[in-house]
Amino acid sequence: MADLNPIIGTALGIRPGIDTLPDLSPEGLDAVAEADRSTLADLDAAEAAARAAGGGDPGGDGLPVEERRAARLLRERLSAALAVHDAGEGLRDVSNLFSPVQSLRSVFLLMPTVTDDDWAAVGRRLRNVPAAARGYEQSLRTGVERRLLAAPRQVETVVEQIDTWLAADWYATFVAAGPATQRAELTTAAAEATAGLAELRDYLAGSYLPVAAGTPDAVGRERYEMWVRRWAGSTLDLEDAYAYGWAEFHRLNDEMKQAAEAVLSGHTPLAVMRHLDQHGEAIEGVDEVRAWLQGLMDQAMADLDGTHVDLAEPVKRVEAMIAPPGSAAAPYYTRPALDFSRPGRTWLPTLGETRFPVWGLVSTWYHEGVPGHHLQFAQWVHSAQALSRYQVSLGSVSAMTEGWALYAERLMDELGYLTDPARRLGYLDAQIMRAIRVIIDIGMHLRLRIPAGETFHPGEVWTPELAREFFGAFNGRDPAFLDSEIVRYLGIPGQAIGYKLGERAWLAGRDAARAAAAARGTDFDLKAWHMAALSMGSLGLDDLTDELARLP
Question: What CA–CA distance (Å, rounded) separates 365 from 380?
Fold first, then answer.
């Protein structure tokens, strides 16, 4: 896979000096699918051999438990990926977060830039951006021929993102930090990359967008179920998930009212959050907020190590970063290289702001950094020798990893780190956002009705406009963030529901493990459970709760 998609090699740190980019044309997409099919055939043979040999875990068809987990994950992930490919989804892959367009910029943020050789590889890769962009354009053109189209909202958003990058001359700005001896070469290479990106932008705006007119935002049940399987590793009961989202929304809304009262008596949560935006604790300056976020993660690491987790030295390195202009509005995390040569990093999109209210940042950085994404992904890398490389990298299941990160926020609340009323309101605001995601993501794509007993537009069918109104009425994030989120949910169907549903699976697994310890007459060791859970690699939601329940 690292050969077929060199960005993977860069992300995992297993192809030092690589300067190529993936073939994003239909032929390139087919080559990846063929590799998936070939691997599944190898897996069939390996499992047949294990069954013939016997032994291993009694419930695992002759495989030891570690091998059983690895095999189940590999089969489920590759099958889900092939279903997406066979449906032609790669021919209309346009969104504001995970589509190929963003990778043509983000890959450079993952490349080492220490030595002259590092920068030479950057220059060579920049020259490959136009060909990669043309391959992507070929896939979109094939999608047009097959009437597999992205919705105009997605295309318009991506064009706006590219316009931001072009206005900032992003590639040229990036290489400005390179060595003076390579300045001319890097500048020329950056100009070529910029020209290739501009050509793609013109195709999207001038040719693709008119043809895509009228394409609906909602993907419908069949496509949505396929994407949920891809993001969650499970065939979920969507009506049950929708009802759960509503139940969690009401529970959290009640808790938010109590928290808001503790901050500013007699005001609604939304009014209190707006008050905190203007008058609450805040960090002034972009450099200052980066340093503050770094300190927050370092302190959480120091406090939790030895009490609720046991961390190896490489896991303790995490860097707070500022996201480049033109990123989506949501903060995010990038994983460490498999040899820890590049650390895990959290990224804050500033959206042009220079003042950063604290109330909404604390819980978010527990999610993105420590004890959230960083502890899980870095521990996977540390545990890689006991697992398959696939389990700690490409086999990652979004709902499992986002579920852990949301569990991590809740854990910090349980441990007393969010007793400050303003910061706890921020935590609850982050929680209710994830419940709202379940409601409106499923609601918009399946065109469900709002329950008759609700006070918000009862009985009406969800639309993007209603979803945006609902979001803004019950969540304290700024308008630009909320607008970006609606586009995200429509362009990446099924991904956003995994946070809350993944957290539900993690909590159910912890409860079951605690109950099993009580049945044995032993104390439940939360630290041991955390480390076992963080060290078992990726799982889909079909398996997660059962596997967590078996852990010590």
Answer: 19
Q: Identify whether 16 is preceded by a cis peptide bond (ω within 30 of 0).
A: no
pLDDT reported for residue 61: 65
Phi, psi for 455 (deg, rounded to 5): -85, -20
Q: Where are the alpha helices (DSSP H) in 54-114?
A: 65-86, 100-110
Angle at 315 between CA 314 and CA 321, to 5 degrees: 100
For 66-86, letters b (16+ CB in 10 Å) and e give bbbbbbbbbebbbebbbebbe
Query: What's 341's DSSP letter?
Result: S
Distances (CA, A) of 221 to 110, 360, 370: 36, 34, 36
CA dihedral 55, 58, 63, 67 (to 10 degrees): -140
Angle subtended at Cα 405 by Cα 340 and Cα 263, rounded to the nearest 5 degrees: 125
The beta-strand segments (E) located in 213-361 are 282-284, 318-322, 332-334, 344-348, 355-357
Q: Which of 101, 67, 129, 112 is nearest to 328 (CA)?
A: 101
Give the residue from 281, 506, 548 showing the smallest Cα distance to 372.
Answer: 506
Closest by CA to 74, choosing from 29, 43, 38, is 43
For the chain, the structural domain boundaries read: 6-215, 228-491
Residue bearing the bigger pLDDT, 50 or 10? 10
Instruction: Sort 147 into a burial class: Cβ within 10 Å, 0-12 / 13-18 / 19+.
Output: exposed
Q: Which amino acid is at 193?
A: A
Distance between CA atoms of residues 233 and 407, nearest Å: 18
Which tens digits make up the pLDDT trace of 66-117?
Answer: 898 999 999 999 999 999 999 999 999 999 999 999 999 999 999 999 999 9
Does 255 have pLDDT greater than 60?
yes
pLDDT over 90 at 411, yes or no: yes
Contacts of 508 (CB under 8 A, 6+ apart): 545, 548, 549
- Decide: 496 and 224 in contact? Cβ < 8 Å: no
Q: Report the alpha-carbon distance of residue 331 to residue 350 in Å, rounded.
A: 9
Do 213 and 154 touch, CB atoms closer than 8 A?
A: no
Q: Tell whether the model's pLDDT for residue 322 goes beyond 80.
A: yes
446 closest CA partner among 244, 228, 218, 230: 218
pTM: 0.95
CA–CA dist 166, 181 (Å, integer): 25
In whole angstroms, give the CA distance from residue 25 to residue 141.
10
For the segment 13-17, the average pLDDT, to the nearest whole number, is: 92
CA distance 124 to 182: 12
Rg (CA), the chain: 23
